[in-house]
Amino acid sequence: MLSVASSIFVGSQGDVRSAEGQPMLRENEEAAWAARVQQLVDAGDVTDLDRSLYRLSADIDGDWTFDGGRLIGLLRVMPAPTRVLLLRRMTEGLEETAVHDPGRCRGLASLIVLVAHGLPVDQLAAWREPLMAMAAGEMTLWEGWRLTCLVEVEQAAGRDVPDPVVATVRRTALTSETPGELRALAATIVEPVLNPGEPWAEQVITHLTGAEPAWHALVAHALTAAGSRPTGKWQRLGRGLLADVGPDRAREAMASWVARAGEPRTVPVNSQYGTGIAELELDPFNARALQGFAALLALTPAHPRSAAALGELVEAALIRLPGIGWRSPKTASAAVQALTQLGHEDAYAELGRLAGTVKYRPTLKLILAALARRTAHRPLP
Q1: Which residues contact 298 (CB under 8 A, 6 or more apart)?
Q2: Residues 218 and 354 in one domain
Q3: Which domain-ending residue is among 187, 210, 239?
Q4: Are 104 and 177 in a shared domain?
Q5: Structural domain includes residue 153
Q6: Do 137 and 226 share a structural domain?
């Protein structure tokens, strides 16, 4: 999981160069850095050591192989409490670096992972546990580098990342403007299939426990839905997966899941909008599955339960949250599109009901357009 900028070689003038041929440090500069770091390590001066490593990271372009691993070796022989204190200072500094010099974050994050390597979990606790608690208690973080470090350290040590932290990693990867390398890391985490903390998602997770592989494939496919109007290829694959599960069985399960989308969270986290506890904010990772389930319901045999569940999903997605706005207009659009595609009397009756209750204008426009098309194509008596 560790990333380094490039391999290095020694140029003709005795300077250390990157693989691209750019000078990094001359041999005398490398020796001076090693002596400086050794002095600070011997003194246990974590504050100046942190500052020095920050400056060195810029000089070597974040490539900690520049000296064949000598400097990392010096840092790893520090007493464990001193190493952990250094880890804490460097990790705290990542947040500020993400604001002022984001290009330097990868090198600093790599250093954190390298310094943490080999420390047992009990000795890492003073660094690890506060990060875990922070991650588990937030809907998202504004930047992803601290989480990137945490996940890389856990994976390098062969430890599973706790589910609440996985949830924040996934959400931050989707929403942060400075996600670090969370998007690639999040893609490597396949369990749990959905983020716990929302009643409907926990019902899905429970349903999948011990379920046949066809169910797992169906839920995984729902997570790949792109937008409110899935492609023809996506729908063809969906029909095949529904056939594997059984269309009626799939409909009953999915309808029961999406109908619960309006229930408050079971696990409290702080709002990403700074409005307190996020009781009704929709998890952006899980929202993709809701949109996928809506699209899959449109491919199942017509049934009043499907129409009712999709109508409930529209209303749940358009709850207006104080200080935030509409909960998830994209999910509402997906549910309206599914009702339109179902095309039977129960679906249009549900659209007619929603036309009298929905206040969010873009969604209302979709509903009215669907009803107008229905009227235009209905044969005259």
Answers
A1: 337, 338, 339, 341, 342
A2: yes
A3: 187
A4: yes
A5: yes
A6: no
pLDDT exceeds 90 at position 179: no
Query: 3-class secondary structure for 253-299?
Result: HHHHHHCCCCCCCCCCCECCCCCCECCCCCCHHHHHHHHHHHHHHCC
Distances, alpha carbon 141 to alpha carbons 92, 110, 182, 273, in Å: 13, 20, 11, 10
pLDDT digits (tens, 9 = 90+) for 127-141: 999 999 999 999 999
End position of a domain, from candidates 187, 220, 243: 187
Considering the domain architecture, whether residues 220 and 156 belong to the same structural domain is answered as no
Q: What is the pLDDT of residues 44-93, one digit of tens each?
A: 899 999 999 999 999 899 999 988 899 999 999 999 999 999 999 999 99
The span from the CA of 121 to the CA of 248, in Å, is 48
Which amino acid is it at 74? L
Answer yes or no: is pLDDT of 1 > 80. Answer: no
Domain limits at 152? 8-187
**How many other CB atoms sit within 10 Å of the CB of residue 133?**
12
Beta bridge partners of 325: 321
178 and 204 together in one domain: no
Evaluate whether 116 touches 153 at the Cβ level (below 8 Å): yes
Considering the entire predicted model, what is its pTM?
0.87
How many other CB atoms are there within 10 angstroms of residue 143's CB atom? Answer: 23
